[in-house]
Amino acid sequence: MRVVIAEDDALLREGLTLILAGEGLDVVAAVDTAEAFLVAVAEHRPDATVVDVRLPPGFSDEGLRAALEVRRRHPGLPVLVLSSYVEDRYAAELLADGAGATGYLLKQRVGEVTEFTEALRRVAAGGTAMDPEVVAQLLTRRRADDPLRTLTDRERQVLALMAEGRANAEIAELLVVSEGAVNKHVRSVFAKLHLAPGDSGHRRVLAVLAYLNR
Fold first, then answer.
1. Is-cis flag, bond preceding 57, omega within 30?
2. Are 164 and 122 found together in one domain?
3. Which secondary structure element, helix H or strand E, spans residue 52, and what is its range?
4. For the chain, what is the domain count?
5. Are 124 and 156 in a shared domain?
6. Which pTM value belongs to this model?
7. At 163, is the secondary structure helix, strand, or coil?
8. Which of 108, 137, 190, 205 could form a disulfide with 195 if both were Cys (CB 3.0 to 4.6 A apart)?
9. Distance between CA atoms of 128 and 101, rounded to whole angstroms?
């Protein structure tokens, strides 16, 4: 897999490069600005990208804007965005096109090499990867009358894992329950949130996240 990285912190940029190389991935470019990122993507046509939300010169949302721009120029290009903080507005904006192949992780996950590379591979394969902390905060920032408050603790666990991009079989393994039980919980979650239960894969995750961000 060929990867382009955009990260302004030199140490983290080098660390990301070493981590991915150690996992057998080919980092074809590692740059420090949004403009250089756009140029690198056009030149190398990578299989996936890793982008910091905040890049020079303003250190606000230049990286996110660059990620959205490369998705416009190269539809479906896998993008994994990194952020130092939980900024759910960015998560929602990144997922808004509904095309999948997107992820949003906190930078602290980079040190968890297996989890980080697994998320990147999932995004590169067309799936989604949401940071568990982002999902947790989205779940707790709800109004008193929000239907999310009607979910049971187990249903909230299942919903959080769905939003991370986990398949039902994987959720069953993580929660140590049967896949049939997970299927039942998923149906209940969609019913309580008034979402169509028939969809699957990243599309159902996008539907859930869209609801959470309303």
1. yes
2. no
3. strand 48-52
4. 2
5. no
6. 0.76
7. helix
8. 190
9. 6
**Residues 35, 87 within the same domain:** yes
The answer to whether position 136 is within a domain reads: no
What strands lie across the sheet with 2-6, from one edge to the other? 26-31, 2-6, 48-52, 79-83, 102-106, 128-130
Residues 127 and 155 in one domain: no
CA distance 63 to 112: 22
CATH of the domain at 44: 3.40.50.2300
Q: Are 128 and 206 in contact (CB under 8 A)?
A: yes
What CATH number does the domain containing 166 carry? 1.10.10.10
pLDDT in tens, the chain (214 residues): 999 999 999 999 999 999 999 999 999 999 999 999 999 999 999 999 999 999 988 888 899 899 999 999 998 899 999 998 877 677 777 777 667 788 889 998 888 898 899 999 999 998 888 888 877 776 666 665 677 778 898 998 888 888 777 889 999 999 999 999 999 998 888 888 777 665 555 566 666 665 666 5
